[in-house]
Amino acid sequence: MAKKQRFRDTKQKRETKTNKMEKPRIPFATSGIKAKAFLTDIFMLLMPLLYISIYLIHDGLEDIANHRLEAWAYAMVPFLLILTLFMFKDAGRTPGARAQSLKVIDFHTLDKPSLFSIVFRNFSLLFSIFIPIFWLIPFFRKDKRMLHDFLSATCVIFDPNPPKEKVFKAA
Known about the structure:
Layout: H1 6-11, H2 31-57, H3 61-64, H4 68-89, H5 95-99, E1 102-106, H6 115-130, H7 147-152, E2 154-158
Antiparallel strand pairs: 1-2
Helix pairs in contact: 2-4, 4-6
């Protein structure tokens, strides 16, 4: 007996019995929106920490010339810890991501990432920021993921249900 020819079913637009599992469509965030969220985080969180590092811990810009790496460390470590805390407590959102209606999710489970993934993502963010060649990765991919997203198996998406802001009414 001859095999059933599947191309006839396709040509006549009949359904064939295949076990194709359809992947869910993920609303990946664009590079421009992610950049806006990151710049918001930089100005809201990192700049005050840099000012504290320069003017309170060190004696101003003259002292920073001799201790530049130390001043950056005093600012970047708390910045990454604050980002991690925001992402863990607020379901993958930082203040900048919340302002742009973005959210970080686990790429495989499409759920909130684990604490280890968030910590690993934020510390590998340093690696991908300070090496400019890695900035080009999102321009060649449809999902717009960067190096730290690949390493931690996360992705940034548009939040379909952004959290409602609490409105306080004056009595």
